Amino acid sequence: MADILQAAQAVFALQTLIFIIIGVAVGIVFGAVPGLTAVMAVALFLPVTYGMDPGVGISILMALYIGATSGGLISAILLKIPGTPSSVATCFDGHPMLDKGEGPKALGVGIVFSFLGTIVSVLALMLIAPKLASIAIKFGPHEYFAIAVFSLTLIATLSCKSMVKGIFAGVLGFAFATVGIAPVDATIRYTFGTTQLKAGFTTLTVLIGLFAISEVIKTAEKAKQKNEMKVAQVSMKKIKGFGFSLKEFKDQVPNGILSAIVGIAIGILPGIGSGTSNIVAYTVSKKRSKRGELYGTGIIDGIVASETSNNAGIGGALIPLMTLGIPGDAVTAILLGGFMIHGIQPGPLLFINNSVLVYTIFIAMFVAAIAMLVLEFYGLRIFTRLLNVPKHLLLPIIFVLCVVGAFGINSRVFDVWTIVLFGLLGYMFYRFDVPNAPFIMGFILGPMAETNFRRGLMLSNGEFRGFIANPISGLFLLLAVGSILWTVFGSYREKKKQICVSNLS
């Protein structure tokens, strides 16, 4: 109880509350403006939190995450362009409702169920994470190696259309992680005589380059094309409450609960994220609905499914991050970097050694959810106007912030060149349709797998049987093999299906 009171005192301090509100507002902008994603928001503001208290800094990152995930609904409904991948399914019914003159209702439903999805996900995080951590605290090197391998197979096979490209990105990320001093025996690897490479590539510079700088380059390329789409201005003052009746809300409760469960479950799986959960929840909702044929024509059911699930995925993705130190998606991979720059290692010991920080995160997420609800509803006119801000004004500011943030980490010009290098690499990934999530997961999880593999061999006197004989590690290694076989079989079946279709045509 003392830890909870101390955490509440930290969150409800005036300075922290202001930072959380600003974080949510900035997150909504990044989510609403197409091309500025949640990943970019968190990566860009990670250096800003460097000198802050860990509780305050991580609370800001959580606020950005929550705001950006929900903010995508604004452009999805008003422009029929999802601000983030997590709001793709919101376009299906949101914009048709706008065309029918029900734009305020669509926005109101999206905002409310984004809020509810976030609240449910935080409750799930609070209930599941401590219990999982109490089990994970008994894990040793064998178990952590097996979990890392299983996570890497999921990332490489489920986060992209091509399994080969996913594996390539993951292996390349692992290769970059091996630069510098090796774990366990401290051997210097792949520095090519360059002193600055002995420390390896810092996680923060890799994240800023791969996600923020590459997005700047991509957006700059698209900005060459004239975009004459005008944002529909919708006034929320002309409607009562949030634009929908209490009966409509009650009718959508089962749909919301099911979608929240889907979002949490998919969020827990490493490498998938809310970009997939909103599509899956929309499909599940459509199949079980009695009026499934109306989906896509402009009904609130589809918006409820999409917006509840994508925000529910936030808490789900944080469960493996906080209990096992394994990120659930690209944003939580950056959050892992956020923990590390504050000297905190996520994992089961987090709940013992940093219990105040854990409760601070929980309370901050509740506060951020409430701030999101208020800011999105009352600040909608401001956010819609921001959609029309020219990209040539935004891009230079973002680029300068990235450079300043990278230099401020260790005061090295080398880090500035590093973000440029990984920015160009991220852009090349984009051009050749190679996913960047497996790269960053390989960069983070690869060293974890290597370190625990070597420690496991030391514990079992160089015998590989220790990894298989241990029940938990053996189970996860078996699941890893199963996930690879399943993906190979699915890829073969898809190719066979395409061949049959081409033959018929």
Task: Provide a compact summary of the structure.
The chain has helices at 2-11, 14-32, 38-45, 54-78, 90-99, 103-136, 141-158, 163-177, 203-222, 246-268, 274-288, 300-324, 330-341, 350-353, 355-378, 380-386, 391-410, 413-431, 437-459, 465-469, 471-504; strands spanning 180-181, 188-189. The protein has 505 residues and is mostly helical. A hairpin with a 6-residue loop joins strand 1 (180-181) and strand 2 (188-189).
Description:
The protein is mainly α and 505 residues long. It has one domain. Helix content is 73%, strand content 1%. It has 21 helices and two strands. A two-stranded antiparallel sheet has the order 1-2. Strand 1 and strand 2 form a beta hairpin. Helix 4 packs antiparallel against helix 13 and helix 5 packs antiparallel against helix 12. The chain starts with a helix and ends with a helix. The mean pLDDT is 80.
